[in-house]
């Protein structure tokens, strides 16, 4: 079994990419949306199980109103433009987070696409939108409490937005090396990869190379490999 099956990406650097070109920040988001399409297709071709993208955090809501509403419109356009490709590629699409602030039309589009693709068996494409890792954890705690379920790792994972959720590799573009409240529970044993490339310049080649390189890393999950035990004559 391949060691990298579930990948998450913090798609950072859109604003700086645009500003470095003397363009408004939203120009970076437009280009970024096209990159999402290419990377999802490559993830699907590589046979990954899931790709979770940080598209809009709870903290992003406090950005200037014009940028926020632009991102909402961009999501709406993305859903219209990408639907055909998502269906053709047998992708299962889902949005994770509290995105109830979106307008009715967009909410309907999300729910339609989720319903149309829920039986698809290919890549699980997750958009984290209105997402925050801490609030996801609190929500799961409340859910277990309400249902009077035993607090176990298994039940906790099931109470998250996406029940099949452990991440093998977290990539962050744009040069910063932080987690920014993304998938805090799910990345417990994830490999981390930080690239300076801003998201609008992130290519399918770089993506494939990162997967190839991190697949070679030895993942021990806190244990010692059998070969090492033999070598150390333990
Ligand atoms: C960070 O760039 C990126 C985001 C706020 C979210 C990611 C958004 C996209 C990839 C655009 C497409 C989105 C949808 C909904 C289809 P930043 O603005 O924080 O960049 P900076 O760090 O350079 O300021």
Structure description:
- It is built from 8 helices and 6 strands, in the order βααβαβαβααββαα.
- 44% of the residues lie in helices and 15% in strands.
- The protein has a single domain (6-132, 166-233), classed as 3-Layer(aba) Sandwich (Undecaprenyl pyrophosphate synthetase), CATH 3.40.1180.10.
- The protein has 234 residues and is α/β, with parallel strands linked by helices.
- A 6-stranded parallel sheet has the order 3-4-2-1-5-6, with helices on both faces.
- Helix 3 runs parallel beside helix 4 (104-117).
- The two termini are 27 Å apart.
- Helix 4 links the parallel strand 3 and strand 4.
- The radius of gyration is 19 Å and the shape is globular.
- The site of farnesyl diphosphate has 20 residues, from helix 1, helix 2, strand 2 and helix 3.
Show the helix and strand layout:
Layout: E1 6-10, H1 14-19, H2 25-45, E2 50-57, H3 65-88, E3 92-96, H4 104-117, E4 124-131, H5 133-146, H6 153-158, E5 169-172, E6 191-194, H7 204-215, H8 226-231
Parallel strand pairs: 1-2, 1-5, 2-4, 3-4, 5-6
Helix pairs in contact: 2-3, 3-4
The structure holds farnesyl diphosphate.
């Amino acid at each position: 079994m391949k060691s990298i099956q579930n990948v998450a990406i913090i798609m950072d650097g859109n604003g700086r990419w645009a500003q470095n070109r003397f363009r408004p920040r939203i120009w970076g988001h437009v280009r970024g949306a096209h990159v999402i399409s290419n990377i999802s297709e490559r993830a699907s071709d590589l046979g990954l199980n899931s790709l979770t993208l940080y598209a809009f955090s709870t903290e992003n809501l406090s950005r200037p109103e014009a940028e926020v509403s632009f991102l909402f419109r961009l999501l709406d356009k993305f859903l219209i433009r990408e639907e055909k490709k998502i269906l053709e590629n047998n992708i299962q699409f889902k949005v994770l987070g509290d995105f109830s602030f979106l307008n009715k039309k967009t909410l309907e589009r999300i729910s339609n696409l989720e319903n149309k693709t829920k039986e698809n068996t290919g890549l699980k494409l997750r958009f984290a939108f209105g997402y925050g890792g801490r609030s996801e954890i609190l929500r799961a705690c409340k859910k277990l409490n309400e249902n009077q379920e035993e607090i176990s790792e298994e039940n906790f994972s099931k109470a998250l937005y996406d029940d099949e959720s452990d991440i093998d590799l977290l990539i962050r573009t744009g040069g910063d090396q932080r987690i920014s409240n993304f998938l805090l529970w799910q990345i417990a044993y994830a490999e981390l990869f930080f690239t300076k490339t801003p998201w609008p310049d992130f290519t399918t080649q770089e993506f494939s190379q990162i997967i190839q390189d991190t697949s070679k890393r030895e993942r021990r999950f806190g244990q010692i490999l059998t070969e090492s035990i033999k070598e150390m004559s333990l």
